[in-house]
Design a protein that fits this description.
The chain is α/β, with parallel strands linked by helices. The chain contains 4 helices and 4 strands, in the order αβαβαββα.
């Protein structure tokens, strides 16, 4: 899975950290990330109540926290070690896409990235290839 490889390479600090998935109601990725990285918290933001309800049933032991709202305008106080979305920004117009990308950046905890010469926020906007 491309996403897991990217997280292993660029965000190994999410082990026991905080993960935020934007637009992730009924996420395909949450179970794998929870199993492989054991984050302290896994937040999911989505407008779809049904998807969020399904997400919450993933595991009673998992540190899942759901937030119902629009990622483009929702004020989140989360500072996550990794923030991602899969297939989210394509739903919006150019202005909406910009707001959704900025939501990723606002919620990313400033820290050193997986590269010794980079510091500050890591933001992966897109990964080409098969996401599974």
């Amino acid at each position: 899975m491309v996403l897991l490889r990217v997280l292993r390479q660029h965000a190994p600090h999410i082990i026991n950290g905080v993960v935020l998935e934007l637009g992730g109601g009924n996420s395909f990725f949450a179970a794998r990330i929870l199993r492989e990285f054991s984050p302290r918290e896994y937040h999911v933001v989505d407008t779809n109540e049904t998807g969020l309800s399904l997400m919450e049933k993933l595991s009673s032991k998992a540190p899942l926290i759901s937030h119902r709202g629009d990622v483009r305008s929702m004020a989140l106080s989360i500072q996550a070690d990794a923030v991602f979305s899969i297939g989210l920004i394509e739903h919006f117009s150019d202005a909406g896409r910009r707001d959704a990308i900025l939501a990723h950046a606002r919620s990313t905890r400033p820290r050193r990235c997986g590269h010794p010469k980079l510091s500050g926020q890591c933001l992966v906007v897109g990964v080409a290839g098969n996401v599974r």
